[in-house]
Amino acid sequence: MSTATIRAGAILPGRGGMGGALSDAFWRNPKLLLFVMLTPPLLWLGIIYLGSLFALLIQSFFSIDEFSGLVVREFTLKTYGELLRPSNLDIIVRTVTMAGLVTIASAIIAFPIAYYAARYAKGRWKAVFYLGVMLPLWSSYLVKVYAWKLILAKEGILTWIFDKLHLTFLIEGWLSLPVVGGNSLSVSLTGTFLVFVYVWLPFMILPVQAALERVPGNLLEASADLGASPRQTFTNVLLPLALPGIIAGSIFTFSLTLGDYIIPQIIGTSHRFIGMAVYAHQGTAGNIPLAAAFTVVPVVIMGIYLWLAKRAGAFNAL
Amino acid sequence: MPYAVSFQQVSRHFGTVRAVDAVDLEVEAGEFFAMLGPSGSGKTTCLRLIAGFEQPTAGHIEIFGETAEGVPPYRRNVNTVFQDYALFPHLNVADNVAYGQMIRGVAKAERLRDAEAALEMVKLPGYGARKPGQLSGGQRQRVALARALVNKPKVLLLDEPLGALDLKLREQMQEELKALQRALGITFVFVTHDQGEALSMADRIAVFNEGRIMQTGTPEEIYRRPKTRFVADFVGSSNVLSPDLTRQLGGPAEWSSLRPEDIRLGAGGGHEAQVTGTSFLGSATRVTLELAGEKLTVLLPAGSDVPAPGATVRFSWEPSALHLMGTEA
Question: Hey, are the CB atoms on B79 and A223 less than 8 Å from each other?
C-alpha cells in the first residue's frame, strides 16, 4: 500500500475550483445536468425547426393574388383547392407512386443483404458489409446521380452490355411502353426509379440489418422445431420481427423520395415531382402559399403511413 | 419395439473440434433419459443432432427406427424445450403454444382450445392473453414446455431447461417434469450439467466428456459404480484415490473412489489424517482431510461432532464403500 492511500481519510477532500464544485452540484442534482445539456438543442428544435414548420403550415392557408402576384395574408382554403387541380394532383400521384415503388423495391433488395449481414457475416466480412453499404454515402450525391446519367444514357454502358448480349430489344421494348418508357433510360421514369433505389438503398439496409440482428437465432430454430418450413418461418417469425426495421427504413426511402427534387430533374422526364413543384413555386413563380401547400402533402402522407403501420401492428415487436 | 433414439458411431466435427466423437447411444421408448456432462462435453450437440439443427459428420441416427440424418427439423416429430425458452416475443402465450398446430393448419378455435388445455397441464390456466415479456422465468419455462408438449411429440428434448431457475423453483419443476413424463409416457431426453438433477430425475443417464460417452446406466449404477475417474469425480464429487493411496488404505494398487458420505470420523481403528478445513452446508458439514499429500472430502451428517482445522483425526469406512476402477490412468 502506498503512503498516499494510508494518509487518505474515509472521505476525500473536494476537488476545488469551479470544475470541482460544478461536478459535485451535477452529481447531487442529475436533472440539472440533463437540463443544461438538453436546453440548447430543444430550443433549436422547438423554435427554429418546429417554428418554421408551423410558419409553413400557416403560409399554406394564405393565397396569392392572381393579378398582382402578391401573397394575400388572409386565411383561406383556396390554395388547397388549387392543389387539387388535375395538373397538381398529377404531380402528387406521380410522386407518391414513385416513393411507394422505390420503397418496395428497396425493401426487397435490402432484405437478403441485411439478412446475410445479420446472420452470417462475421468479423472481416461484417466490416466489408458496412463499408460496402456506407461507401456510396461518402461520395457526393450529385456525383452519383450524374454517374448514373452516363450509365443509363443511350451511349452508356448499360445499353452497350445489352447490345453485346444481343438483348437490346429488351431495353427498346421496355422504353416503348407508355409512362415508364422514353427516348433512353436516362430520360425515362424507369431511370428515375433506378437511381432513387440506388441512392436510398443504404437507408433501408441499415435499419433492417439492425432489426434482424436483434432476432435471436434460436427463435428460428424453435419455429423449425415446431414444424415450420423455412418459408413459414419467414412469414410467421422473421418478417414480423424485422417489420419495425423495414418500417424505419421505409420512412427514410419514402420520405426522401417524396421530397427529392434533384434526381427527377437530372434523370427523368419533363413531368414534375412534388419537390420540383415546391422548388418552382417558391422560386421563379413566387407562389409561396402553393409551395407551402405542396410541402404539407408529404408530411400528411407520412403521418397517415405511420398511423396505418402502427394499426397493422408493425411496432408490436418493439 | 425400436429404440426411441439410437446413435451408431455418430460424430459431429466443427473444423478440427470433435464436438461429438463416435458416439453410440440408445434411448428406450418412454424413458426419461439424461445426458450429463460439463459444458463443451458434446451433450447439447447430441441433443441438436436429434432435433435436426445439426447434421452428423459421420454415423447413423435413428428416431423410432427411422433414419434421421438428412431430415430437416421441421419434418421430425420431435420437439425441443430450449435453454432460454425461445418464446416468440411478438405472439401472446396462447399463440406461442398454438404455433405448431397453426403451422399444421389446425383451425383457430381448435388450436386455441388445445393450447389452453396444455397451459392448464403446466399450471398456467388463463395466461393465454399475456405476452412472454410479462412472464417470470419459471412461467416462461412452463409455456415453452406446453408449446412443445401440445404437439404430442414422439421425443421431447429438453436443453438445460431448469438452468435459469432459482433453487426452490428448480426442485419443484424437477418433480413436475417427472410426473408429467410418467403421465404422458413420452420419451424425454434431458441435457444437464447438474448431476443432482440427472440423478433425481432420470431413468438412465449417459455421462459425457470431451465428445464421448464415458458411461451409461441407471442413476444408482452411475453413482455407486463409476467406471472411470471422470465419472466418479463429476457425479457427486467422489474422492478419487490414486493406486498408491488405495494400497496404503488396504486395497489393491488400483484407482478407486470413495463417497464423501461413506467416510466416518473418529470411530477408532482405520487411518489417520489431518483436517485442513471445514465448511457448513446446512444439512451436512464438509470436512477436508489431507493424507499422504492427497485430499479427501468427508460429508458429516448434521449434528455430528465437527473437528477443528489442524486436528488429527481417525477415519474409516465400510469395506464395500471403496469402489475399484482398475489400473488405467
Answer: no
Contacts of A218 in chain B (CB under 8 A): 82, 84, 86
Global ipTM: 0.85
CATH class of the domain comprising B237-324: mainly beta
Domain boundaries, chain A: 84-311
E runs forming strands in chain B? 5-14, 17-27, 32-36, 58-63, 66-67, 78-81, 155-159, 187-192, 204-209, 212-217, 239-241, 256-258, 263-265, 271-280, 284-291, 294-301, 312-317, 323-324
**What does CATH list as the number for B5-228?**
3.40.50.300
Segment A168-224, tens digit of pLDDT: 899 889 999 988 888 888 899 999 999 999 999 999 999 999 999 999 999 999 999
- Smallest CA–CA distance, residue B207 to chain A, in Å, is 26
B-chain CB neighbours of A227 within 8 Å are 74, 100, 103-104, 151
| Shortest CA gap A268–chain B (Å) | 42
Give the pTM.
0.81
Domain edges within chain B: 5-228, 237-324
Mean of pLDDT over chain A? 89
Question: Would the pLDDT of A1 be above 50?
Answer: no
Cα separation, A46 vs B121, in Å, equals 56
Return the CATH class of domain A84-311. mainly alpha
The per-residue pLDDT for A63 is 87
Q: Is A225 helix (H, G, I), strand (E, B) or coil?
A: helix
